[in-house]
Amino acid sequence: MLMAKAIKGFTKKAGIRYYSASPFLCHCATAKQTDYAEVVIPRKKTWDKLAVLQALSATVNRDPTAAHYRFQDDPYLLPRTSPEFRLYSLSQESGCNAARYIVNNYPKLFQKNIAEPSIPCLMPQQLEPLINEVTEEALKERVRLRRVRDSVDLYDQLVQAGTSVSLETTNTLLDLLCFYGDQEPPRENQLEPEATENQTEVSEDSQKRRKGRLRRAADLLTVTWRENHNAERIFNLMPERNEHSFCTMIRGMIKHAAYTKAINMYTDLLNNRMKADVHTFNVLILAVPEVKEAYNEKINFILELLTQMVQQKVQPNLLTFNSALKSLRRCGSMAKGVSLQVINEMKFLNIEPSLATFDHLLGIFYKSAAMNQLQNDIIFRIVDEMEGKHFEPKDPNDVNFFTSAMRVCLDLKDLELAYRIHKILETGNNWKLLGDSYQQSIYYGRFFSIVCMMESIDVVLKWYKDLIPSLYYPNVQGVKDLLQALDTENQLQLIPHIWKDIKYLGHSNKEDLVEEVLELMGRDKHPPELQAAFSDTALDIKATYMKDQQKILKWTAASLGNVTVLILRGGRFQDAWEMLPLFKANNRVPSKVLLDEFLDHAKGSSNKTLAVDLVKLASTFSLPSTSEFLDRVMAEFELTDEERRTLKELDNSSSDNSDCE
Which one, of 346, 367, 437, 345, lies nearest residue 399 by Cα? Predict the structure, then answer.
């Protein structure tokens, strides 16, 4: 009450209206008011159990120097590359599956539920049927437990016994069979799904679809609609069928690549004076590119299905238009005008587009093969539409948008557009729609490539520190883009630091990348301090070669020459001289530039013995420049008569060898 009086006095003097921020008071007073302010007790607020954690998480920003949060529990397993990131992520999922296997197979070990709050999905599930009689209730139980074979066997027993099965129960059985393709689903209480002979059977539609294409691994593992399918058999045995029965069969056939059968089933549905639901139309539209060959035939069939939806008074939804746009992606340039009509129809029906809608538009207007043709402003209109909005997942293809949009930015070399797309990604929780670790790596790799290509080195390094390793593990091409940016801005002094990151990221065994690092350091001469740093890096690279020589890395003439030159320029003559035998051991020939470097060092130190040894070395390798080295040594060094006679003999012998060759 004293607090209320104090607030009231302050507000009366100030002549303002005050709303208390206290959770216990809601005080409102005015300057003209003379009595005590009214105290309003707020209504009880029910807080979510995660409210405190959400409030705390809002105060913490991402640490760009740390790995992803999912790996913080075990620092030993911190990934260094994108494949490791994906491998460890899948390993965690595998661990969850193993835990679920233990829980479901040994439920007696987990009878006490002491979790707070209680999480029912983490407790053992009832996976074994409890009804053993041959009844419709037993069939419903087996369908609910997703036991495909048991459900079919029990249905056959009921039919043979003359027991009628209700239409609703039969439809749920069809749902199960069509969804899983008449095969047992992989269960959480199995460490590995059982292989069946049916998985090797391929329907005629699937064979026709794959003809003339490379077979992808995903296609080979997909369960196809086999002949004598139990769903077809049960469907034909049903005494009565409704729209649900036909629609389930159509969706199941399309899901398992029996496209021609699905179209025929849809014709039967129309002949029975029934109409399909919106979900059936959606999958029919997706199947159009599989049953039609020519672009105009595909477009006409899509428009025909949309017209039939209007005639049957079926209200389209977002997935309907996304399905149409996805099928139009396979209709060439003819699809551009039709796709804009689809978008206008969405606006007319007040259907908000999702990220998948925009992704399909990019796929239609920005095909890789047509990027050099006349460009359009579709992507800019899309970005204008998206800026400042928060998106929620509405379509499984939503996760493809950001990677596709960044690909277009990279092809157009539009840095400003890339920044706008990245800002959309960081708006709200839009980052959750970036996809799995593989898609994240593709997106950030493309974004980092365009930054390296178009930005100054200071901005490039800023993004480099902000993205790595918390969000992005650069591949070899990403590191090459960074090295190119350093070369363009003449910031080669940073290469020793980049080399340490290359080793940390696990790319020190990539031969082309290592040679590019050596080439940049050894191309020009630099101040002594920088040459010393380059020399240390070259010795580190040499150790990498010597360690992995029998595995991946192999010495080339360029890598040997650059390492030797860098060590020599760093003032480590003895280490550089010890590199020369490696040329002969690896069947490599030292370059004239390398020998000139050694000769310059010999001249600077007035070491005529080294100069003579260099001429002998050139003669040993039968270099064409041996005579040139001989003339230079004899002109720049004070040699004795015996040394001159020895060098001339070497020159004559090398000339004879050259003539013989």
Answer: 437
pTM to 2 decimal places: 0.80
Give the pLDDT score at 72: 67
User: For residue 243, which of 279, 274, 285, 264 has the smallest C-alpha distance?
Assistant: 274
- Residue 140 CB neighbour total at 10 angstroms: 19
CA-to-CA distance for 541 and 373, rounded, in angstroms?
A: 45
Classified as helix, coil or strand, 430 is: helix
Query: What stretches of 272-316 show up as alpha helix (H) in DSSP?
Result: 278-291, 295-311
Q: Where are the domains positioned within the chain? A: 1-44, 134-187+199-274
Instruction: Look at residue 39 and give its three-state secondary structure.
Output: strand
The count of other CB atoms within 10 Å of the CB of residue 439 is 15
Half-sphere exposure of 200 (CA within 13 A, CB side): 3
Q: What is the DSSP letter of 27?
A: E
pLDDT tier for residue 326 given thresholds of 50, 70 and 90: very high
Per-residue pLDDT at 346? 92
Distances from the Cα of 466 to the Cα of 42, 266, 470, 582, angstroms: 44, 54, 8, 41
What is the secondary structure of 167-209 as a DSSP string? HHHHHHHHHHHHHHTTSPPPPTT-SSPPP-GGGG---HHHHHH
Q: Are 614 and 598 in contact (CB under 8 A)?
A: yes
Average pLDDT along the chain:
81
pLDDT 10s digits, 587-639: 888 887 888 888 888 777 777 778 777 777 777 777 777 777 777 777 777 77
Q: 91-95, 216-220, 269-273: which range is least confident on average? A: 216-220
When mean pLDDT is compared over 352-361, 467-476, 610-619, 628-637, the highest value belongs to: 352-361
* Average pLDDT of span 302-306: 94
Listed in sequence order, the residues at least 6 apart from 359 whose beta carbon sits closer than 8 Å to its beta carbon are 397, 398, 400, 401, 404, 405
DSSP of 8-19, one letter per residue? HHHHHHHT----
Q: How far is 25 from 4, CA to CA, in rounded Å?
A: 8
Digit-coded pLDDT (tens) for 197-224: 444 344 444 444 444 443 443 443 457 8
**37: which strand partners?**
none
What's the Rg (C-alpha) of the chain?
37
Whether the CB-CB separation of 544 and 502 falls below 8 Å is answered with no
C-beta neighbour count of 115 within 10 angstroms: 10
> Look-up: residue for tokens 């949060």?
69
Q: DSSP string covering 52-107, please?
A: HHHHHHTT----TTS--GGGTT-GGG---SHHHHHHHHHHHHHHHHHHHHHHHH-G
The set of residues, in sequence order, having a beta carbon less than 8 Å from that of 261 and lying 6+ positions away, is: 205, 225, 253
Peptide bond into 469 cis (omega under 30): yes
Least confident of 123-132, 376-385, 499-508, 640-649: 640-649
What does DSSP assign to residue 161?
T
Contacts 24+ apart (CB under 8 A), 478-482: 478/445, 478/448, 478/449, 479/505, 479/507, 479/513, 480/513, 480/516, 481/448, 481/449, 481/452, 481/453, 482/448, 482/452
Strand partners, 27: 39
Nearest partner of 74 among 91, 60, 62, judged by Cα: 91
Q: How confident is the model at residue 550 (pLDDT cuts 50, 70, 90)?
A: low
Tell me how far apart the alpha carbons of residues 274 and 48 are, in angstroms, rounded to a whole number: 47
Owner of token pair 């209320």 = 4
How many residues appear in the chain? 661
